[in-house]
Amino acid sequence: MTTEHAALQPFHLAVAVDCLHKAREFYGQLLGLSEGRSSDHWIDWDFWGHQFVTHLAPELAGQLQHNQVDDHAVPVPHFGVVLSWQDWHQLADRLRHAPIKFVIEPYIRFRGLPGEQATMFFHDPAGNALEFKAFQDPAQLFAKQ
Q: Domain VOC: where (predicted)?
């Protein structure tokens, strides 16, 4: 199977949260995602064109480990989306003024190297780790060092 596609297909990701009200505040109000279907136990979100679901499962929420990358303790698991360079900077600027505690502050990694990217990490209220990144040259997404 090739990794080159004429058009990317949306992914589906479901994560555990400990409170749907807090999930609505974080994903709906703070990040500005559109809410889709929902029940008393889950909420579908439009995550930049992908189907993202927050499931009420407090016993599973926020279980993390960390790996060292560029002198940072990167939370594992984590998820996110690759934004355009401009959209990433707009989101980073907005979140710097929001009640967000960054795990890794917005910065540029691999500066001047293949795969140069803007990245930031933070947690949702349930402890799920998110990474948002951007490439000035989107063709560098899978570039090797």
A: 9-135
8-state DSSP, 9: P
- The answer, yes or no, to whether residue 2 has pLDDT greater than 60, is no
In the structure, what pLDDT confidence band is assigned to residue 55 with cuts at 50, 70 and 90?
very high
CA–CA dist 118, 109 (Å, integer): 6
Q: Which two tokens stand for residue 62?
A: 């926020």
User: Domain 1-57: what homologous superfamily?
Assistant: 2,3-Dihydroxybiphenyl 1,2-Dioxygenase, domain 1 (3.10.180.10)
What's domain 67-145's superfamily in CATH? Answer: 2,3-Dihydroxybiphenyl 1,2-Dioxygenase, domain 1 (3.10.180.10)
| Average pLDDT over all residues of the chain | 91
Place 145 in a pLDDT band, splitting at 50, 70 and 90: low
Q: Strands, E, within the chain: which ranges?
A: 12-17, 34-38, 42-47, 50-56, 65-69, 72-76, 78-83, 102-109, 117-123, 129-134
β-strands 129-134, 78-83 pairing: parallel
Closest CA to 118 of 141, 136, 94: 136
Q: Where are the domains of the chain?
A: 1-57, 67-145
